[in-house]
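Run log // design_07
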């Protein structure tokens, strides 16, 4: 999982920004046994993954990543490689990426790893910027909720405007003889019939949007 994680250190009066270029791969026991090199091949693949995580970053291309190896009871092995860099372009690019659920777990692990580096700051002052940003599926659900709320408010506003509209035909005119009077008389009738249902429907739609937003995990 090649990934670039933005990390910010809060040290007043300025914040220091870093990026963790990382890759994590897990190979099964069969993969380790079938391929030439076993764990060495897996580690080489992870090192290449770190470089691919940010192909334009000199840190990722030239710095040897820190390697973490974890063996599992089923015989599989996970190797994670990480490089810490302070390039502004890398940090800006990493901020634009919105993590999914699996990536968020790896992003937290990358922040914890960065906190263990000798950076001269307490671990609690290090955070993953994207942890404040909701994962992509959640963002989409919340946008839909806001859409329902906006649609509902527009319907309510339209209902209120219709309820306030009142056409009074000029004296001496009749809908049967004056086309303008006929049009506006029918518009007035339509507004009277639609105002209340539209207002009620809009309120229900907006309420649905609020409930959907509150219950979005």
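design_07 sequence
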């Amino acid at each position: 999982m090649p990934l670039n994680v933005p990390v910010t250190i809060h040290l007043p009066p300025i914040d220091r920004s870093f990026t963790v270029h990382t890759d994590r791969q897990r190979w099964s026991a069969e993969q380790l046994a079938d391929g030439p090199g076993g764990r060495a091949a897996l580690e080489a693949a992870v090192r290449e993954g770190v470089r691919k995580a940010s192909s334009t970053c000199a840190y990722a291309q030239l710095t040897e990543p820190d390697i973490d190896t974890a063996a599992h009871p089923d015989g599989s092995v996970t190797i994670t490689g990480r490089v810490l860099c302070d390039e502004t372009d890398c940090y800006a690019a990493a901020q634009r990426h919105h993590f999914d659920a699996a990536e968020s777990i790896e992003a937290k692990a990358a922040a914890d790893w960065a906190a263990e580096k000798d950076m001269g700051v307490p671990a609690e002052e290090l955070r993953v910027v994207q942890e404040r940003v909701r994962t992509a599926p959640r963002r989409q659900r919340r946008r839909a909720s806001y859409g329902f709320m906006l649609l509902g408010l527009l319907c309510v506003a339209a209902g209120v405007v219709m309820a306030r509209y009142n056409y009074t035909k000029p004296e001496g005119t009749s809908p049967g003889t004056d086309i303008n009077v006929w049009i506006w008389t029918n518009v007035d009738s339509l507004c009277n019939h639609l105002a209340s249902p539209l207002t009620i429907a809009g309120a229900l739609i907006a309420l649905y949007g609020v409930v959907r937003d509150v219950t979005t995990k």
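The longest helix spans residues 179-215.
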